[in-house]
Design goal:
With 598 residues, the protein is of the alpha/beta class. The protein is built from 25 helices and 17 strands. A 7-stranded parallel β-sheet has the order 11-12-10-13-14-9-17. The protein has a 6-stranded parallel β-sheet with strand order 3-2-6-7-1-8. Strand 15 and strand 16 (566-568) form a beta hairpin. The longest helix has 22 residues, at 375-396. It starts with 9 loop residues before the first helix and ends with a helix.
Length: 598
């Protein structure tokens, strides 16, 4: 490992050299938190602490991977779940007693057995709600609910109170469902299995009577810990003499999956509090925006240099927003900004996908953080489309393509042994596709045929339908498969704009960050507005505006939200009288596409 010669700030040195056994470090965005943590570990090694006596815990696999690259050799870095699983496995007396991580199918089978063993709870649920948990459908719903709750009773109550969660019929039977879950947990353990909540729960119980070999435990991203992780850390804190937590309560945005750490000082009450407030990422202008968004509390972030004022584009419509977005991205690239140094962030995946389609229609490809690009599958769809066009040309020439020839092509395209009745169904769809007049319509029918085949083959990647649907608008430009294929190949090889949800962007940075939908109902999200709890939404907005090294670009536009049937038209309530003076605002009144078609 190469250690760079770094000049640390006084704040960083205070953390690196502290002699306090318990410390909480409030680390604002871009303040070198990870480097400071690693420097603290190196300092401990210099003082004679052995590597195996140091443990670093973090929230995600991605964060752990970064830590492993930067920590000295021999220092253990793990997620909470991996650490807990290791504790449980290390206490097994024989290899045959090693717990096995449950597959989804095995987990569901055990839950259905558990429901049968809880007749009293099952009857009570049916009497109160009319739901029969013994049916496969309701058992699957309960399995999904238990998974989303992640072992947290608080999160279970929150999800059940949400009218649009899909579990709004559960509030009156939460005690019965909790009894079923506890019985399920015991059955999982009895059968030699383990799931993710159990990794933490069992590890905490085992550590209560054990002495872990660590003298120092450092926790990264501590503000994102779930209730189970907090409990495990509390047990560790009673057994380990030195604890240091790194995090930023202003970036606590995972309450929807059980994050509950909140103010980190409440986790270790005898800890000293240290701060990292000088951001190497943010300019003074971007820091001013961030502080205006979340001005309350300690450790206001400060920038390290002057830059340009963040911008707010107020658009007259969703189409105007798409056109303004495409224009902005084109201008940034023309000015020499590398595409992968530009990020487009949205509150939801659906919102980001619309932006991806608009950019793709303008010959600008994107690299999604939540949906892997599926070019190989797209090229197979084009083979189906080629088959459609070949059938059309053959018919024009007065010949009818043989049925077995068409079926053979479909078999080869999907490269799987699908049943003949399904092939016959797809052959009928091929005939329908041949009657569609537009290239775009034929492309979408080819997508439909391919998805039907690949799903039957049982090898469908996540988000495949959305990935293939991305190209619908772009396909309008073409009349031949050859030209569309060449276009796809060229875009797949170019540098790409990054797209992500705001949650998925946490911990990253780009030169230019474009935040979509700064509109009431989007940011803050309408569900949280309905619940009357938007504190986490404000923190999420804070995360979004602190990702940029150079400039933040905010977009507001009225939008119709199809899933809820609502129209969101007002600018975000987070654009307050404190925030607006930090922005350079401009109005985008009319979309270019609207002008062109009138």
């Amino acid at each position: 490992m190469i250690v760079k010669k770094i000049k640390y700030t006084p704040e960083q040195l205070a953390v690196i050299n502290t002699t306090a056994p318990r410390a909480v470090v409030w680390a604002s965005p871009g303040t070198g938190k990870t480097e400071t943590l690693c420097a603290r570990v190196r300092r401990l090694l210099d003082l004679g602490v052995r590597p195996e006596h140091i443990l670093v815990l973090s929230f995600s696999e991605q964060a752990v991977a970064v830590l492993k690259e930067r920590l000295p050799s021999g220092v253990m870095a793990k997620t909470f779940h991996a650490f807990g699983f290791g504790i449980v496995r290390s206490t097994a007396r024989a290899r045959s007693q090693m717990p096995v991580l449950l597959t989804p199918m095995r987990s569901f089978d055990l839950l259905r057995q558990t429901i049968k063993r809880c007749p009293k709870a099952r009857r009570s649920v049916k009497e109160k709600t009319g739901l029969d948990l013994s049916t496969p459908y309701e058992a699957q719903r309960l399995a999904d609910f238990i998974k989303r709750c992640n072992g947290s009773n608080e999160l279970a109550a929150r999800i059940a109170r949400d009218d649009e969660s899909g579990f709004s019929d559960y509030p009156d039977v939460l005690p019965e469902l909790r009894a079923i879950r506890l019985t399920y947990d015991k059955m999982v353990e009895f059968t030699g299995g383990i799931d993710y909540p159990a990794m933490l729960r069992r590890a905490g119980a085992l550590l209560n009577t054990a002495s872990p070999p660590y003298l120092h435990v450092l926790v990264d991203e501590a503000q994102d810990m779930s209730a189970e992780q907090v409990r495990l850390l509390s047990v560790l804190a009673d057994r380990v003499p030195n604890i240091m937590l790194f995090g930023d309560p202003k970036q606590a945005v995972y309450g929807f999956i059980g994050g509950s750490a909140g103010d980190m000082r409440n986790l270790i009450r005898d800890a000293v509090t240290l701060g990292l407030s000088r951001s190497f990422r943010l300019t003074h202008e971007n820091a001013a925006l961030a502080n205006a968004v979340l001005s309350q509390g300690r450790y206001r972030v400060s920038g390290s240099r002057h830059g340009v004022t963040p911008k707010l584009a107020e658009c007259a419509s969703a189409i105007a927003q798409e056109d303004a977005l495409v224009k902005l991205v084109g201008e940034l690239i023309a000015d020499g900004v590398k595409p992968d140094r530009i990020a487009i962030l949205g509150r939801t995946k659906a919102q980001v996908r619309l932006a991806e389609q608009a950019l793709l229609a303008a010959d600008i490809e994107t690299d999604s953080r939540f949906s892997e690009r599926q070019y190989a599958h797209l090229f197979r769809v084009l083979e189906v489309l080629k088959l459609v066009l070949t059938c059309i040309e053959t018919a024009k020439a007065g010949r009818k393509p043989r049925r077995d020839w068409r079926a053979g092509h479909l078999y080869r395209i999907v490269s799987a042994n699908v049943k003949r009745p399904l092939i016959e169904e797809c052959l009928r769809w091929l005939a329908k596709a041949a009657r569609i007049p537009s290239f775009e319509g034929r492309y979408m029918m080819a997508v439909r045929i391919y998805l039907r085949l690949v799903r039957a083959a049982g090898a469908t990647p996540a988000n495949l339908a959305a990935e293939l649907g991305r190209w619908q608008t772009a396909s309008r430009q073409f009349e031949t498969v050859r030209d569309l294929r060449a276009h796809v190949l060229a875009l797949s090889q170019q540098a790409k704009i990054v797209t992500s949800t705001i949650h998925g962007s946490k911990g990253d940075e780009w030169d230019h960050v474009i935040v979509l939908g700064v509109t009431d109902g989007s940011i803050p999200f309408y569900r949280e507005m309905k619940r009357g709890d938007i504190a986490e939404e404000r923190r999420l907005f804070y995360v979004a505006v602190t990702r940029a090294r150079q400039q933040v670009h905010l977009f507001h536009a009225p939008v119709h939200h199809a899933p809820s049937g609502q129209r969101f038209a007002e600018p975000s309530r987070f654009l307050t009288g404190n925030v607006l003076p930090t922005l350079d605002s401009q109005k985008v009144a009319v979309a270019h596409r609207v002008q062109d078609t009138n």
